[in-house]
TrEMBL record:
Enzyme Commission code: 3.1.26.4
A Pfam family the protein falls into: RVT_1
Cross-referenced InterPro entries: DNA/RNA_pol_sf (IPR043502), Rev_trsase/Diguanyl_cyclase (IPR043128), RT_dom (IPR000477)
Protein's name according to its UniProt entry: ribonuclease H
GO molecular function: RNA-DNA hybrid ribonuclease activity
Domain Reverse transcriptase positions: 1-89
Enzyme class: hydrolase
Family to which the UniProt record says this protein belongs: Belongs to the beta type-B retroviral polymerase family. HERV class-II K(HML-2) pol subfamily.
Species annotation: Hemibagrus guttatus
Amino acid sequence: MDQLSEEVRQESPWTMMFADDIVICSESREQVEENLERWRFALERRGMKVSRSKTEYMCVNEREGSGTVRLQCEEVKKVQEFKYLGSTVQSNGECGKEVKKRVQAGWNGWRKVSGVLCDRKISARIKGKVYRTVVRPAMLYGLETVSLRKRQESELEVAELKMLRFSLGVTRLDRIRNEYIRGTAHVGRLGDKVREARLRWIGHVQRRETEISLGQRENEKRRKCCHSWTQISTVGFHGRRVDESVMLLMPNPDMTSCCDLCLPWTLLTWIKLIKLVSYLGYVLAHG
């Protein structure tokens, strides 16, 4: 596929490919139609066919809200959301559908192991370990770059606590605090785990190879990055600022670049620092 599309393929994020799925991004409707026609011509003259029924487009610019996109005089279906590589993208930039899908994925995982989690003969510690291994990863999948609001983070935590209460045989009428439920099952707050995942993602981005299409770096012994923490929070988290607790990792106030923070340390050290930030954030939040 790479060889077939070499003459029409652009750099990410303007063109993204996974197997036979192709995402084409452009700044205007005319450019979309032009690029779509170029792709159609390049593929069909080599014996491949572009499915008209499966081809869809989504507009994220209100000024481009009117009109349609056509492929060989055939109107392309317009959608308000679509799923790409397991994540749901919405035209309004929200992530409510993705959060609901993550909650549903968590419940699906919980039902698969409910025979173990609801067994009264199994200790709470083992149940918590099974939950952390099977259920929680399904809920956290892909949330590193999702701009979660407080309300959406609460939805995830409410669903998690319902699962834990069902697993431990506890109801709201028992008047047992959420902190005690988490402590009994040895399960931390889901919001803290989301922040840990974001920090791991930052470290991964900073350690990536130059060839990766996430961005380009200069070839130097110590690669430099011009992104400040504010820029990283805007670009990486879709407008959400990185938690202020991240700044606790800064050895001195002159280090304002994420590369100044990430590059001197190995992956193992970075993971340990992530755990430290999560713990300090919990202490600061609970006094």
